[in-house]
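# step 3/5: fold
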Amino acid sequence: MDNKTKIWLMRQAGRYLPEYQEIRKKEKNFMNLCFNPKLACDISLQPIKRFDFDFIILFSDILVIPYALGQEVEFKENIGPILGNLNHEQLEVNLSVSLAKLAPVFETIKLISRQKKNKDLIGFCGGPFTVLNYMIEKGTSKTHEKIKKFIKTNNQQSKKIIKIITEVSIEYLKKQIDSGVDLIKVFDSWAGLLDGELYKKYIIEPNKEIAQEIKKYSPQTKQIFFPRGSKANYLNFMKEVKPDVISLDEEFPEKVFSYAKKNDIVLQGNLQPTILIEGGSKLKEGIKKILNKFNENKHIFNLSHGVLPQTPVENVELLVETVRNSNEA
């Protein structure tokens, strides 16, 4: 990486873009969209055409893994994902069957690869605990009571399912690499729900296994990990998992800066998505503050989570322009 701050945004392809909304009018079923290579490729490239971001991120969803394992997944407008019943006691994995269900994603990657020019393409999956969370909660949750109860009262079952999710995720990422992604990212969006031994068991260990297996399989493929909400655990995560890039939200230990610099880890983040919605001088100030804060480290500018649907397009233009102008200064 050169000294210029590169930029891309989580959920840069999606609901805030009018061109995405045009496609959604024709294809109402979100999972069908994820499994339509032509449309998913077009959506992945939309923010590149509009903003010229430094990275393309594959348009897909972390919930393709539960689908690949046989659980029904649908998305309802204004509600989010709804997952079907899961017979976790009888859950088994047949890798060839699961990967066959995900074949359209690999086709999407091949299509993007042929059109990506000088941009790097990021493939991804969900962190195993985050995927388990959705599988047990059967959707989004404010309290996460079901998953908390499940891992406490079904210790053997939860270990077994995490193992299955981890195994499928590794093979899924390998296939993404074979199909043409340049980097992989693991989104552990609900890592912050756990602490102590549970954090070690359900966050660090599965992510570490993914990191090690992908490193063995494809040493040149850079790895980004995002254990969102980890707070003080960010540092331990970095030490154990050894990512090439660590994606950060707003709260993390100051020692992350020195540890990342010493161990050649790139920091990614971490503007609040709500500031991007506000725009104007507050957005500019927020960007400059982050650029100054990360100035001594290798840094990819990003958000602390995904672009929100109500984000004005002109604010994203201002964001890109401000970051790019800082590179010229």
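# step 4/5: annotate
The domain at 6-328 is CATH 3.20.20.210 (TIM Barrel).
# step 5/5: archive (pending)
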